[in-house]
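[job 0412] stage=complex_fold ligand=cobalt (II) ion status=START
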Amino acid sequence: MIKNINHIAIIVPDLEGALAFWEGALGLKVGGREAVPAEGVDVAFLPIGESNVELLKPTVADTGVARFLEKRGPGIHHMCFEVDDIDATMEQLRAHNVQLINEQPQVGHGGRQYAFVHPKSTGGVLVELYQLSDE
Ligand code: CO
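[job 0412] stage=complex_fold status=DONE, emitting C-alpha cells
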C-alpha cells in the first residue's frame, strides 16, 4: 500500500542558488544537508508536511544525475512514494507489466529499502519506492 509522498527530488546546479528560492522566498526550512560522495551528490532536504523537497546537486561528472542536468537542465528528477511493503508493491507492478529499474530493493541510508520504476512505464516520470525501516 502506498502511504505518502516521501520526497520530490529536484536537480539543481548549485544548492545556495536553489535555496534562495525554496528557503529564502518560499519559506521552507532546511531539515538537513548531506554530501553523498558514493552517489556523487550534495543533498538538502526541506521538510513539508509528511514529505520533503530534496535538492540534488551533482558533484561528480558522468553520473545519472550529472547527465540529467547536462541534457535537460535543472528540474524535477523523480518522485518518491513511501510504501509499507516494497516487495509486495514491486510484485504488484510486475503483475501490471511495469518495467522496474531495480529488480530487487536496494538498501540505503538508515536501512531504508528503495527501488526505481522506469519512466517508460509511468508516462515519463521516474518513480522511486521507499520502505523505511521499522523503528
Ligand atoms: Co529519491
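The pocket of cobalt (II) ion is lined by residues 7, 9, 54, 78, 80, 128 (CB under 6 Å).
[job 0412] exit 0
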